[in-house]
UniProtKB/TrEMBL annotation:
It comes from Frankia casuarinae (strain DSM 45818 / CECT 9043 / HFP020203 / CcI3). It comes from the Bacteria. Residues 1-178 form the Thioredoxin domain. PANTHER family: GLUTATHIONE PEROXIDASE. Keywords: Oxidoreductase, Peroxidase. GO terms for biological process: cellular response to oxidative stress. The keyword Manganese does not apply. The active site is at C35. Belongs to the glutathione peroxidase family. This is Glutathione peroxidase. GO terms for molecular function: peroxidase activity.
Length: 178
């Protein structure tokens, strides 16, 4: 099974097959509008504008599971992304990424790249250790702006924890596009 085998909901309620992205490098990110990491939208959009023509597609999935930091409706989220960050990459329908109602895509992403979240995540590690200690050492998504790099064949290449900025992964993206 690959990422291309999944169907997701778009923000307008229609379904979108991720098979439509076969042959493209994907960066899949759980996003939020009211998070301290929300400015990462700028870096994601910069990557998208620079690398989209070479085959990069970024897919944002709003999620409200972390501190209630994505409380809006799909329409409100679209408006926020367009007006605050001039986002042009697809921001899809709001989902859950952990727990019994996790989107099947995210269950797959987590199992393929469980992550290595630890003290090197700095302030976020300390926050998770205090607020969600049961998540440490699991494949759970720890917070907003966890990123997954997926190759053109739909295979998960790598997981980047939230504190890794879009700029820090540019080299990996470019290598996957080459």
């Amino acid at each position: 099974m690959t990422v291309h085998d999944f169907t997701v909901d778009a923000a307008d309620g229609t379904s979108r097959s991720l098979g439509d992205y076969a042959g493209q490098t994907l960066l899949i990110v759980n996003v939020a509008s009211k998070c301290g990491l929300t400015p990462q939208y700028e870096g994601l959009e910069s990557l998208y504008r620079d690398l989209h023509g070479r085959g990069l597609e970024i897919l944002g999935f709003p999620c409200n599971q972390f501190g209630g930091q994505e409380p809006g409706t799909d329409a409100e989220i679209q408006e926020f992304c367009a007006t605050k960050f001039d986002v042009t990459f697809p921001v899809l329908g709001k989902i859950e990424v952990n727990g019994p109602d996790a989107a099947p895509l995210y269950t797959h992403l987590r199992s393929e790249a469980p992550g290595d979240f630890g003290p090197d995540a700095g302030f976020l590690y300390e926050h998770i250790k205090k607020t969600r200690p049961e998540a440490i050492g699991t494949d759970e998504i720890k917070w907003n702006f966890t990123k997954f790099l997926v190759d053109p064949d739909g295979k998960v290449v790598r997981r980047y924890e939230p504190t890794v900025t879009p700029e820090e992964i540019r080299k990996d993206l470019e290598a996957t596009l080459a």
